[in-house]
Amino acid sequence: MKPIRRRTLADHARGFLRDWSLPRQFRGESPYSDAAKSSGSARLRPRLEEADKVGTNICPYCAVGCAQLMYAKDGTLIHVEGDPRSPINQGTLCPKGAATFGWLTSELRMSKVLYRAPHSDRWEERPLDWAMDRIAHLAKQTRDETFVHKLPDGTVVNHTLGMASLGGATLDNEENYLIKKLFSGGLGMVWIENQARV
């Protein structure tokens, strides 16, 4: 029976040097050819190859409004990158935009409505419909309790100082127009601001 030859450190080094692309490139082979490949890189596959759906998104973290491509597999997000078709960011993302994937898939991300009743020491899970109804009820209650029709000198103001709005920086002009109409015209709010100006 033939004895099994164990690979020595020198054998490993020779194999590594044959497989490593840098010596081939130093010998004059083009770094744009197969000289740049190794057995490890040949086995690599693009992580987006598995995606079965690609959607678009606008990054919500500042006023620039960079476009993003959202890659999903079986309904689960697997990657986020800049959209090269966008005239705004042309496929690039800043550190906040590049961190979108981590923020969306973090185990610490809140995905349920939590409510803490007044004077309570604990949070309770509540349905989203309940939370939306509660917000609407409290907004109407606050408006009704703080609404001023006239000032003491008789000047008609029809406003409330009991509520304020701070809009997100990625809202476009049309959305801000509608927010202004609803909050000032409908609810009588005076303090309406936008994150992009703060």
- How many domains make up the 3D coordinates? 3
Portion in strands: 15-25%
CA-based gyration radius: 29 Å
Overall shape: it is elongated
Give me the secondary-structure category. Answer: alpha+beta
Major pleated sheet: 3 strands, antiparallel
User: Helical content, roughly?
Assistant: 25-40%
Low-confidence parts:
none
What integer is the average pLDDT?
A: 86
Give the terminus-to-terminus CA distance.
81 Å
In what order do the strands lie side by side in the largest sheet?
Answer: 1-2-3
The total of helices stands at 7
| Run of helices and strands | HHHEEEHHEEHEEHE
The count of DSSP E runs of length 2 or more, i.e. the number of strands, is 8
